[in-house]
Amino acid sequence: MAGSLPRDPAPWAVRRDRALANPRLRANIGRVARRLAGARQQAYASYPAGRALRVAGRDAKRRAVAHLEPLLDQLRDQLSANGARVIFAEGPKEVADYIVSLAARRGAQRVVKSKSMLTEELDLNRRLAAAGLTVRETDLGEYIIQLLDERPSHILAPAAHRNRQEIAAIFQDTADRAGVPGPTSDEVGPLAAFARARLREEFLAADIGITGANFLVAETGTVVLVTNEGNADMVASLPPVHVVVAGIDKVLDTWEDLAAVIQQPALSGVGQRLSAYTTLISGPRAPGAEEGPEELHVLLVDNGRRPLLGGPYADVLTCIRCGACYNVCPVYRQVGGHAYGSTYAGPIGAVETPLLAGLNFLPELPKSLCTLCNACVDACPMDIALPDHFITLRRQQVDERGEPSTTRLTYRTWGRLWSSPRQYQRFLAWARRGQRFMMRQGRLVRAPGFLGGWFETRDMPPIAAETFHEWWARRASSPALSRSDEAPS
Amino acid sequence: MAVMERRGARVAFAAGQTCCGQFAYNAGHWPEAWGMAKNLLEALDTLPQPGPEAARTTVGLSGSCVAMVREEYPKLLDWAADQPGWDTSWPVRYARVAGRLLEFSQWLGRAVPAPPPPEAASPTRIALHTGCHMRRVLEAGGEAARVIETLGLTVAIPEDEDQCCGFGGTYAMTEPKISTALADAKLAALQATGAEALVSCDWGCLLHLGGRLSRRGAAWPVLHLAELVDLGDRGDLSPARLAQVGQFVREDP
Description:
By secondary structure, chain A is of the alpha/beta class.
C-alpha cells in the first residue's frame, strides 16, 4: 500500500522560485552542504579502514532488506521477550492513534522528542497536537525549526537554512514570551546554553519520550540511536514512557552487522568517526532497577516501504539518512530542502518520495531536481543507484502518467529525425531554413515548445554553413580537399 | 582530425552517425533513445578496421556521450531486449563497438607518449572544466589536465570543480532557472581563476557555459580540448588566437 507523506500545497514553480529568490537561504544551505561534504571527504581520506567498513556496512543493510520479514519477526519476538510492546503500524494514522490512546491511558500530556525523520514523514507532531498533546522537539536544529513552525531543510541539519542571527532572533522572541532572559549573544555558545536551559525543563516535565531508531538489531531486540547532542538519551530515559517510532527498513540481523555500519551515519554525514552518543536500548526498566522508562513501545512502520521489497528500487530502503547525497547535490545546494515539498529532500528525497507515496505524488521530483551529474551515487555510503532510479522513474512517468502531447510529439519527432542518416539530413535542411527566423546577431535566440527554455537565458550558435558531416562528404569526393588542416573547427 | 593525424592516426569517420540519444534516455523517452542508439551502433560497427586489433580505436569528442555508450547502453539494451523488434545481434554489435571506444583525451593520453613539458611553463592559464560523466562515470577526468600541461600551459582548476554546470541534456530546457543558476555559479568559479580561456572535453558543457556567456554579452574564449591542442601543435597559443578560435559562433574556415 502506498504511504502517506506531508506535502507543501504550493506548486513546484512557486516553491522553486521562492527558494531561488532567497539569497540568504541559498548562502546558508550552500555553506552547510559544502562544509559537510568536505568533512566527509577528509574523514575518509584520513581513515582508510573506513572504506572497507563502508562496504561491509552496505552489505549488511542489503542482506537485511533482502530478508526483511523474518528479521522483523525475530526483532518483535526478542523485543517482546525483553519486556517491550511491539506494534506493526501501517501509516501515520495508526501511529498517532496508538500514541494518543497510550497517552490517554497514562494520563500523559507532555511529549518530548529526539530527532526523527520518520515522525516528520508521518507528520506526527501535528497529529499529536491536534489530539491535545504538547510536543517539544529537543534536537537543537529541530527545536529551532519547531519554534519557527518550519519543516527540516536538511536531513541531518534541519535548520541548515537559518544562520546564527536568525536563530538568536527566534530564541529572543521565545524568551520574551516565556518571560525569561534570552541568549546573551548570537555566538554558538550562548545560543546552545539558552536551548539547553529551556530543554532541561522540558525533559524533566515530560510524560512520554518519543525517539526514532537509526538501527534495530533483530538478534537481541536492540534499538540503536546515534546523536551528537545526547538529547536522545534524555528522551529515552527521563520520561516514564518511551515510544520508539522506526521504519521497518531499520532492522539489521546481528551485532556484527551493526558494528559494520554503526560509524557510517557520522562518517558520511558529518565526517566524524563516530557520533558523540551511541545509545543501545533493549527493553524498559528491569524489575528492581532504578533507571529507565517503565514502559517501552516500539512501533514498526511501513508507510509505503513494503511494496519496494524485492523490486528494482529496494536499495532505497538501505538508506541510513546520513545526508551525504544532499551535501554534494548541485540542485539541492541551489534550492535547499523546502523546495522539494515533502519530508525528504536531496537526491534520495527526490527518488524516495514518489516511491513511498506514489508516482503521482509530487511528480516533479524525479524530473526537475536532478541534472544526472552522478555526484550522489559517488557520495552514498550504501551505493544506492540514485541516478539509475532517477532515469527509470522518469521512464515510468512517461509510460504511466503520460506527458503533455506537445512534449511527447517533440521527443518523437526529434528521435525520428536523428535516428537515421537520411532523416538527419532532412533535419539539417529544415533547421537551416527555420533558424533564420530565430536569430539575432548571428546567434540562435529562440526555439519552439519546451526547447525554448534554453533560450530564456542562453544562446546557441546556428547550424554551421558546412557541418562536419558535409565537409567529410565533400572531402571524400574531392581529392584536392583531403588535407585535414582544412577541417572546419 | 588534424590533431589525430599529426599523431600518426589514420582517421575514418562513420558518416551515418547522428547522436547517442542520451538526452532522450535521461528524460525517460527510451524508445526514441533506442532508435538513436541503434543508428549509432550501426554506424560505428561499419567503420573500417585496419591494422591490428590494438590499433582499432573509436574516439568520441564528448566524455558524456562516451560514458553513455560505455556505461548506459547496457541498461538500454536490457530494456530493448523485452521490446518488439528486438534482434539478438545487438549485444554482439554493442560489445564490438563499445570495446574500442575511448574519449578524446583518453586517446591522446594513451596513444601518444607525452612529450616532456617545455622547460618554462607559459603564464597563459587555462581554466579546465571536467564534465560530470567524464569525472564520475568514465572516471577519466585527469587526462585533460596532463594534456594541457604538455602544451606548456598552466591548468587552473576552479573552486567546487566537482559541481555540475547545470546542462543535464534537456534539463537545461525544462528547468532553465535552476540550470542557469548552476551555470552562473560555475562561470563565476571558472572566471575567478583569472584564466585566459575555458577548456573542456564535453561539447554539452561548453555549449551551455558558452551559451550563457554569449547571452550575458561576455566574450571569454571557450574551446574544446581538441581545438586547444590543435593550436598548440601549430605553436599558436597566443591570447589573441585563443580568443579568435574560442568565439561562441565559430567562423567558417
